[in-house]
Specification:
The protein has about 240 residues and is an alpha+beta fold. It folds into two domains: about 10-130; about 130-230, Beta-Lactamase (2-Layer Sandwich), CATH 3.30.450. It has six helices and five strands, in the order ααααββααβββ. Helix 3 (about 60-80) runs antiparallel to helix 4. The longest helix is centred in the middle third of the chain and has 48 residues, at about 85-130.
Amino acid sequence: METAVRKSSSIVPFRPAILGVLSVFVVLTTIYCLTNGIQIVFPHLYYVPILLAAYWYQRNGVLYATVMGLIYLSLVTLIIGYNPNNIVAAFTRFVAFLVIAGVTAILSLQISEKQRAQELSELKFRTIWEHVQAAIIVVDTRSHTILAVNPEAERLFGCPEQEIIGRTCHAFICPAEEGKCPVTDLNQTVDHSERILLTRNGERLPVLKTVSRASLSGRDVLIENFIPLNLAGLLPRKND
C-alpha cells in the first residue's frame, strides 16, 4: 500500500549554493544602491535569503539572518557614514530580519516535527502491514473494488498484488453474488465468522473473517482480514 506522502529532497544539495548566490547578490546590490544614494528598495531583498535560510536550516537560519543583518548594518554605517536617523532605521531593519527569521524557524520546526511524526506513523503501519500473519485487503464499499492487499493476502490468494488490485471482490475472492454482499447489502456483522475465501486456482478455503468499516483519504472502505481455519487450529489439516 503506497504511502500518501512523498518527501521531495532534490533541491537539498543545492541549498548552500542558492543561499551563497543570493547572499552575494544582496550584498553587491546593497553596496551599489548605497553608493548611488538609493536607500528604499534594496533592504527588502534581504528577506528572500533570510526566509529560505530560516525555513531550511531553522536555528542556523536565525544565525544566518544575524550575520546578514550585521553586514547590512555595517554597510549602511561605512558607506553613508554615521547618521543617527540612518543608524536607527538600519537597526530597526536588522531587528525585523531577526524577528522574521525566528518566526519562520519556529514554523519550520513545527512542520518538521509533524513530518517526522507522520513518517514514523507510516513506518509503523508499513511494518505491521507487511509482517502481520493475517491476510488483509481493503475494499471500496461502493464499487467493491479491491484497493490494497498485504503480502500475506497475496500468498493466501496465490497471485501477486498487481493481479488483485482493481478487481471486484465478487466471484474473485468472495463467493457472494453481486448485490448480496454480507456487509454492505445484507448488513451482516462479520466478526471472526467462518467464511469461504476463493483462491487463484478456484479452491474454496475456509477462513475466519473479520470486516470493519473505515474511512481512507475520505473514501469509505471495508478492511477485511482472513485467517485460514486450519492455521487457527479450528480445523484439522488435510494430512492429519
